[in-house]
Input
Amino acid sequence: MALGWLHHRSLFWRFLLIGIAALAPLVVALVQFAGDERDMALKVTRERAELLAAYTVERQREVIEEARGVLRFLTEMPEVGAGGPVCDAFLANHMALHRWIHSLRLSSPDGSAVCADRADTKLPDLHDREYFKKALSGADFVLSELTTDRRTGALAMVAAAPIVRSGEVVGVLSLGMFPGVFQERSPLQVDPTLDVSMFLVDQKGTLIAHHPQIRELVGASVRDRPAVQKALDSLEGSSEALDLFGVQRLFVFRTLPGTDAVLAIGLDRAAVIGAIDGVLRYRLSLITIIIGGSVMLGLLGAEILIFRPLRDLSFMAKAFESGDFSIRASTTGAGEVRLLARILGRMAEAITDREGELKAAKDVAESALAEARLANNAKTDFLATMSHEIRTPLNGIIGYTERLLDEELSREQRRYAELIQVAGSALLTIANDVLDLSSIEANQIQLRQEPFSFLSLIDDTVSIVSSGAGRKGVPIRTECDPDIPDVVLGDEARLRQILLNLLNNAVKFTRVGHITAHVQHKGRSERGELIRISIIDTGIGIAPEKRDRLFKRFSQVDRSIRREFGGTGLGLAISKRLIELMGGEIGVESEEGKGSTFWIEVALQRAEHLVQQQRQAKKIPATAPARILLAEDIEVNQELAKGLLVAAGHEVDTVTNGYEAVAAVQIKPYDLVLMDVQMPGMDGITATRKIRTLDHPAGRIPILAMTANVLPPQIQQFKEAGMNGHVGKPVRRDDLLRKLAEWLPAGDETAGSPDTTAQEPESFNEKDFRDFVDMMGADRVNQWLARFDEQLETTFASAHQYEPHELAQRAHALVSQAALLGFSEFSKFCSSLEQACLSGGDISASLLTARRVTQETRSAIAGLLRDRQCEHVASKA
Output
């Protein structure tokens, strides 16, 4: 046991291997030192070759620049331009100044010689030479390819430049030269003792020149030679390769300026680093023997002690990864490896047992889930079918009950009929909720994206619920952030459904106190304007532990709530699903006994950017008196608009429908038409289209729509019909006169209307009323007040007798005159009632509100008439 550390499975051997590995850096350092010596010698040789190559390239560049200068000088000389013997003599004399120039020639554009330094230079025709074509096309300076002179065997090339007179090439001057790459400008002139091999090849691998000379290879392809291959692969690099004689050299490659030829300069490698290579080979041989023996011993020990056991464990881990836990690693390893193998085996057994349990549980869960889905789908189909089947007879019950209540009934009979109506309405609400819920769960709800007035939605919804809240003595307040956009894009009906549910719940659960509808602008996001609507009540509140039941279907806080307040527990569940479909959120904050705050937050895109009204209105431009046709079917609205226009100095004719408007514009010339959109017979839009198609000057008359429908789609419809603009109802004097000023000739500015200041809307705007009295006269206003009071009495006292579309027309007729007489809030209510009637929804709550606000307005009218009578009596006295 004392010698147990010598056992071949002991960790001692592993530590021994670590010690051997620690010696490796020393061995590497020795090899690196020898390698550094060789690299230094190679570096010095390479740098020397690079200097020689740089010297040759620079000499070549100098020759090219000298040739450029000579050509530039000669092309400007008049003697050259003169041609003939004068030019011949001048070129011959100039060539004698430069030993590297072997010919000078001036050629005409057709390639024939004009003059030259000697007779034989004139012989060839240059028109097919590439450099001649380039110079003739206007290139400032052109070089030919390198060639070998047949007489001397030296390298030669031609430089050419065009002679331009008055913007036209009249000739080409060419200069033949010896670059002297392997002569006076070669590295041999720097150090004649150098053992250097130089050659020039073109991009195709053809040998242009070589030093020492190899005449039989000049002009032949040598692309297969190692040095040439390296030269073409590395145009600006360096490499070791065999030269054309088979000698190993260190080459430097450079592209020769002005050509596509590659210059290669090679120095004898053996002469420089032969001794170093010998020492290096000895050292490398010795080190290789040492390292090889060490590696063999190390690999043998590692294979037995580490690699083989680890391979078994790796194979076992891969089997685990693929889900096979039946594989077991061998336990023949040493020490920690053997212990690890045993632990992995036990873990595999535990995982196998657990996997079996999980698989059985998963099968049970999947089976239960499938059954639950089938049951849920069957339930949803059943609810949808039953809801539709219930709604049909319920509509008949409720409709005929309403007809029955219109008949003469005894007190007891009326009571029974009212009870039937209440019970039917409650059952219809339940059926509607079930249908909505089943439609949502069946993914049959399609949200509509249409522009609507957000603030009007809030006002209308609160108005509908206010009547029921008023009967309980619980007022509803509205608080709106001024940054709320006027017109947004979304599903108005579904948003109204959510708000009605929240408001009705607040009214239901609030006995005393008040309810607040708080609308807040939370900023902007990529999806649109973030708007938060909070319905705050002072009702019974909700305990924290019961809030999680609120948004579950058929769920209420507790059973006592259903017994006392009624309901199905579907409203909030439906609201939550709808607001989530809109991409929004719903939540609640509540304290038992102190009230609740239900809120929704949704992002809505702006549908229209309206210009905000300025606190100080601009001065209204004056217009010249004009002839205006007013198309308006409601007599009171006719009289009001005509009074405003006549007071502004205009001549006004009136018609009551579209047929009369089309006929009137053809009989009498008018400067402008004010066209009501909703008229009997032919409406304003149809009449405008008819007028625009007339072959008559009236076809181009400006037409302005007079309407309360000012949403973007409606305005677009007006434009498509040919209308030039619109004036919103209720008609305001300042708005009307400003719109007229856009289309009528300007008048005397001193006659313009005075500045007015925009006022916040009130239930009764005394300033608007006083302005109207000043403009129209007290007696006439008294007549309008009395007539307005009669209309209110006949319209809303028996409103339940009218069909919805008839009631909408009557409400529409009251919008403008209510606003002009100062009843701005009542005007807004009439506009909302008109839209509610046209939408086909339930207007019973709105009719109750109508009776209340009508009574308030009539009381205010009675007071005004009394005040006007007192003022009249006082003025008589």
